[in-house]
Amino acid sequence: MGSARQRFLDYVRRVPGARAVVSPFLPHAPVIEETLRQLGLPLSRHAFDNEIRLAHALDYEPMFMTECPGLIFPWREAPQLSDADAVVSTLETPRGSWTRRVSRRLGEWGDDAGFPVKTPADYETLIEVCAHTADREAEIRSYFRRFRERIGDEGVIVIGHPHVTWIGYQVSQRNLIFHEFDYRDLFRRAMDAILQAAFVVFEIALEEGIDFMSESSSGLEMTSPHDFDRLDLSYLEALSDWTHARGGLFWYHNCGLTRELIRSGRFNRFHPDVLETVAPPPEGDNDLAESRACLDAGICTKGNLSLLLLRDGSADDVVAATRAMVTAVRGWPHIHSTADAVLTGTPPENFIAFVRTARDASEDVSNRR
Q1: CB-CB contact of 123 with 117 (8 Å)
Q2: Is 24 within 8 Å of 355 (Cβ atoms)?
Q3: pLDDT in tens, 287-305
Q4: 98 phi and psi angles, rounded to 5 deg
Q5: Pairing with 172, which of 114, 164, 242, 315 sits 20 to 30 Å away (CA)?
Q6: How buried is 24 (Cβ within 10 angstroms: 0-12 exposed, 13-18 middle, 19+ buried)?
Q7: What is the pLDDT of residues 32-73, one digit of tens each?
């Protein structure tokens, strides 16, 4: 049937005869390890090897994700500047050394003050860094080349999201709305600069065999339809159009409240090749059959199985929910997957029940056509 990578790509490209794809979304390493133990299979020191071994055992097509914002903003920890309270990192720029300080206790995502962009001067530095992304082509190319060589054809590789409208993770999510209001012109210039830097990184990634270019944006738990139109949509269109003009495939991730964005046709406007995760309650707000019917037939959806059900429900619950997912998308291109990254603490028997049921049920549907 070909490699896992080829099966995945053939299905997304609608190659006649391609079988349905089952691809759990980025299971955390402990889940993979516990499932291998449950199956009596050996463990490797490398997480990629463990997932590849598990994918072979359970007959699914894994996906792997690279870095992206970190390639545009290559922060390097500076041990000589760090202390017991904080980790200090630096980034060398044409304007000099840029510094960020992250609380050891709170961590990167718990420390709003640890994000580097705070002032107008910081925005100008960010824009300058983006303008020099191409200067690091050799480093970026080597990163993608090693990644492709490491995975081979054992799965597809998706580039990490540049997060243009989140300022490439250089502003905390909680403060984005205030920055966009207070520094409107600089905020727009920063988004445009990150977009151009993303094009540089995408170009190298395509040349090095990365399978999907990607982007993500907020669901309606964090934005509004008006602000999605005002901020996100034009950049999603630009990234998708750029990718398609070069013969590539575009992947869009949104694991939040997306029902209204789907029903209104907004996601159809930027034509993603893969759209994940069409999340159900409580993670999202989608009825899979309804949302799938509102999307263009050429879009391959991915996801939907509740992470909390997968972690906290019984194996019978997982089997029933998985069968319902397969039934809901009958006749549509859909990759059977989860509502986001499979949670640590998910029982191996539940993970196995999901994958095996998705494989068996999807093949039953195909055989009845």
Answers
A1: yes
A2: yes
A3: 999 999 999 999 999 999 9
A4: -100, 140
A5: 242
A6: buried
A7: 999 999 999 999 999 999 999 999 999 999 999 999 999 999
Which pLDDT band holds residue 363 (cuts at 50, 70, 90)?
Answer: confident
Tell me the one-letter amino acid at 41.
L
What domains are there in the chain, each with its CATH number?
4-73+118-368 (3.20.20.210)
SS3 category, 249: strand
Distance between CA 55 and CA 41 in Å, rounded?
Answer: 12
Following DSSP, what letter does each residue of 143-194 receive, concatenated?
Answer: HHHHHHHHHTTSSEEEPPP--GGGGGGTS-GGGHHHHHHHTHHHHHHHHHHH
- Residue 250: beta bridge partners? 213
What amino acid is encoded at 21 in this protein?
Answer: V
Residue with tokens 């107008």: 120
Which of helix, strand or coil describes residue 274? strand
- In three-state form (DSSP H/G/I as H, E/B as E, the rest C), the secondary structure along 95-155 is CEEEEEEEECCCCHHHCHHHCCCCCHHHHHHHHHHHHCHHHHHHHHHHHHHHHHHHHCCCC
Q: How many CA atoms, within 13 angstroms, populate the side-chain half-sphere of residue 204?
A: 24
- pTM comes to 0.95
Which residue, 310, 306, 297, 298, is CA-closest to 278?
306
Gap between the Cα atoms of 361 and 140, Å rounded? 41
Rg (CA), the chain: 21
Q: 186: closest CA among 253, 117, 131? A: 117
The percent helix, strand, coil of the chain (3-state, each to 5) is 50, 15, 35
Cα maximum dimension of the chain: 65
